[in-house]
From TrEMBL:
<dbReference type="GO" id="GO:0005737">
    <property type="term" value="C:cytoplasm"/>
</dbReference>
<comment type="pathway">
    <text>Cofactor biosynthesis; NAD(+) biosynthesis; nicotinate D-ribonucleotide from quinolinate: step 1/1.</text>
</comment>
<keyword id="KW-0328">Glycosyltransferase</keyword>
<dbReference type="Pfam" id="PF01729">
    <property type="entry name" value="QRPTase_C"/>
</dbReference>
<dbReference type="GO" id="GO:0004514">
    <property type="term" value="F:nicotinate-nucleotide diphosphorylase (carboxylating) activity"/>
</dbReference>
<dbReference type="InterPro" id="IPR022412">
    <property type="entry name" value="Quinolinate_PRibosylTrfase_N"/>
</dbReference>
<dbReference type="InterPro" id="IPR013785">
    <property type="entry name" value="Aldolase_TIM"/>
</dbReference>
<dbReference type="InterPro" id="IPR027277">
    <property type="entry name" value="NadC/ModD"/>
</dbReference>
<feature type="domain" description="Quinolinate phosphoribosyl transferase N-terminal">
    <location>
        <begin position="31"/>
        <end position="116"/>
    </location>
</feature>
<comment type="subunit">
    <text>Hexamer formed by 3 homodimers.</text>
</comment>
<dbReference type="InterPro" id="IPR004393">
    <property type="entry name" value="NadC"/>
</dbReference>
<dbReference type="InterPro" id="IPR036068">
    <property type="entry name" value="Nicotinate_pribotase-like_C"/>
</dbReference>
<comment type="function">
    <text>Involved in the catabolism of quinolinic acid (QA).</text>
</comment>
<dbReference type="GO" id="GO:0009435">
    <property type="term" value="P:NAD+ biosynthetic process"/>
</dbReference>
<feature type="domain" description="Quinolinate phosphoribosyl transferase C-terminal">
    <location>
        <begin position="118"/>
        <end position="284"/>
    </location>
</feature>
<dbReference type="Pfam" id="PF02749">
    <property type="entry name" value="QRPTase_N"/>
</dbReference>
<dbReference type="InterPro" id="IPR002638">
    <property type="entry name" value="Quinolinate_PRibosylTrfase_C"/>
</dbReference>
């Protein structure tokens, strides 16, 4: 993904998240280590540099952590979000009084490592799917509580896209909804009657028989849950363009090429936001 395609999240949305993380770290007495050890007159210049290759995300978020502690710090973004980086690449430079830099260091790096890890994992899946169909890689609502906006933004930085941001985005009728509603037909009919014409409706199926039933009623998208590639291929042929096809379940770097080759439109993956490993960064004095 090019950086020109990536729109920054509104500061009004990001600032409360970063402020809460700083307050959590500062506790009741502030940074007693830095205040005891570092003279108030000391100055410092540092860069946030990656230890591994990947795709960076959260540079602006990390910068905001420093800025909230001391608005007077000099901060320069060296590698914008969505940029591929190699070990040793510096993505952010900060200079000014040493105390606020050291106080904000851990929170800034936590966001940078976490979000860059999500972006890197997403970029890996996107690359693995390329050349095997037209499927888009998308994340889900399996996000860290309180960090959904940032983690979904990191998926975008890695070249992926987003499923629902919340329960009010669209209707997704899953297996438990179907059980509670009494079947696919009553669930779909009730959904059609309950929402306006702009609200999309998706239904989850895990057999071709369920898919056939859902197609007879009609929906905007169908989630093909935990189907092997050969069943996905058959499902795509059954849908025949009448709905968006989404494959979900057991999506890995190894399995995604075959899933994409089945011809689905979307491949959704929860682990991108709930368990992607971090991309390690350090704050180095220069």
């Amino acid at each position: 993904m090019t950086t020109t395609e990536l729109h920054r999240l509104p500061a009004l949305l990001v600032e409360p998240i970063v402020r809460a993380a700083l307050l959590e770290d500062l506790g009741r007495a502030g940074d007693i280590t830095t205040n005891a050890v570092v003279p108030a007159s000391a100055r410092l210049s540092v860069v946030a540099a990656t230890r591994r290759p990947g795709v960076v995300a959260g540079v602006d978020v990390a910068a905001l952590a420093f800025r909230l502690v001391d608005p007077g710090l000099t901060i320069e973004v060296l590698k914008p979000d969505g940029t591929a980086v190699m070990p040793g690449d510096a993505v952010l430079a900060v200079s000014g009084p040493a105390r606020p830099i050291l106080t904000a260091e851990r929170v800034a790096l936590n966001f940078l490592c976490r979000l860059s890890g999500v972006a890197t994992a997403t970029a890996g899946l996107v690359a693995a799917a390329q050349g095997n169909g037209h499927a888009r890689i998308t994340c889900t609502r399996k996000t860290t509580p309180g960090l959904r906006a940032l983690e979904k933004y990191a998926v975008l930085a890695g070249g992926g896209s987003s499923h629902r941001y919340g329960l009010d985005d669209a209707i997704l009728i899953k297996d438990n909804h179907i059980a509670a509603a009494g079947g696919i037909r009553p669930a779909l009919e009730a959904a059609r009657a309950a929402v306006g014409h702009l609200v999309k409706i998706e239904v989850e199926v895990d057999t071709l028989a369920q898919l056939e039933e859902a197609l007879a009623i009609g929906m905007d998208a169908v989630l093909l849950d935990n189907m092997p590639p050969e069943m996905l291929t058959a499902a795509v042929a059954m849908v025949a363009g009448r709905a968006i096809t989404e494959a979900s379940g057991t999506v890995t770097l190894a399995s995604v090429p075959a899933i994409a080759a089945a011809g689905v439109d979307v491949i959704s993956c929860g682990w991108l936001t709930h368990s992607a490993p971090i991309l390690d960064f350090g704050l180095d004095a220069v």
